[in-house]
Here is the input.
Amino acid sequence: MQSEKTKGASGSENQGEGDRKSAERYNEETHEFVKSGKVEDAAEGAAGQDPQEAERSEQAGRERAREVDPAVHREYDKGQK
Here is the structure.
């Protein structure tokens, strides 16, 4: 029995951060992909990527991860209350 707190807007059960159904679906689809024999083709396609382009893409992703949230103002040099 579900409480009203665990039901989302659609009436389905809210699984929260550890969504087991999505994880199960991902695992099943990954296993199917591996069994399909398409892994080698996908790896060969990725191997043809320009190394410099890959480096630029990786660097751009790392820079985004370092961005500071402008909505959060912190004064680290002052003690905590």
